[in-house]
Design goal:
single chain, 251 residues, mainly alpha, Vanadium-containing Chloroperoxidase, domain 1, two-stranded antiparallel ribbon, 11 helices, transmembrane, membrane
Length: 251
């Protein structure tokens, strides 16, 4: 996940420079667009998922459901797979692939990359601290970073991204990412890496992260749109075995 985040950060900054001439509505039009406005209704589903996950940590009935699900899986011994490591990114890849074949979404390359990059940043900002604070042990006992599921969060963040990009022009196509996200979540459970509550909470975090990315997009887009009297400097950075970028904006 760290590699993917670093890659997205590089894309995030690169498109802000090389995509300046791409079609983008002016700030006033973006700010007035309902697609980017905060809505309490869009919090209902992710809040319900996250709430379920949190309750599964302490509520006896939900903890028993976690345990009984893992018991049933071990009884039937389904085949494990590593596909969930890749399907978490599949909906986002589909958006870029469909655009490459002429099936356009709501945003051009630069703008959708800004939104996706912001969503992934929100996802990491929510998932990683929670894992280290909650310290829930994984079903296989490998570590105590089970809650919430990062794979599920990424999968549902990208599925929600695909939904938001295509829902207005091709509703049925916009739903195509959710089965892939569900597959990812189910196999995190089958692979003995997560409890049911971890996956449900991860799904909520992912959906919320993408919605947040669309809400802040007008401000982020304005910040990344440069005028003639502005100068930027982006430098690669490598420290403590971590690849990153330094970003400077001079007014």
């Amino acid at each position: 996940m760290k590699f993917f985040m670093n890659l997205l950060l590089m894309m995030y900054c690169s498109v802000s420079i090389f995509g300046q001439n791409s079609t983008l509505s002016d700030s006033s039009n973006i700010s007035g667009n309902n697609a980017y406005q905060f809505s309490y209704k869009k919090l209902i589903i992710p809040a319900a998922f996250i709430g379920y996950g949190v309750l599964s940590l302490t509520t006896r009935d939900l903890k028993e459901l976690n345990n009984s699900t893992q018991y049933e899986i071990k009884e039937h011994q389904p085949v494990h797979t590593k596909l969930d490591n890749y399907t978490q990114y599949a909906p986002a890849a589909m958006v870029y692939g469909l655009n490459a074949f002429g099936i356009k979404g709501k945003h051009n390359f630069k703008d959708r990359t800004i939104i996706l990059g912001t969503s992934m940043l929100f996802t990491s900002a929510l998932v990683l601290p929670a894992k280290h604070l909650i310290q829930e042990e994984r079903p296989d006992g490998s570590n105590k970073l089970s809650f919430p599921s990062g794979h599920s969060a990424t999968a549902f963040a990208t599925a929600q991204f695909m939904f938001r990009e295509y829902k207005d022009d091709n509703f049925w196509l916009s739903l195509a990412g959710y089965p892939l996200a569900a597959f990812t979540g189910v196999y995190r459970i089958i692979n003995d890496k997560h409890w049911v509550g971890d996956v449900v909470a991860g799904a909520g975090v992912g959906i919320l992260s993408t919605e947040m990315a669309y809400w802040v997009y007008p401000r982020v887009s304005k910040w990344l749109t440069f005028k003639d009297n502005q100068h930027t400097l982006i430098m690669p950075q490598y420290q403590s075995k971590q690849l990153g970028l330094c970003y400077f904006k001079i007014f």
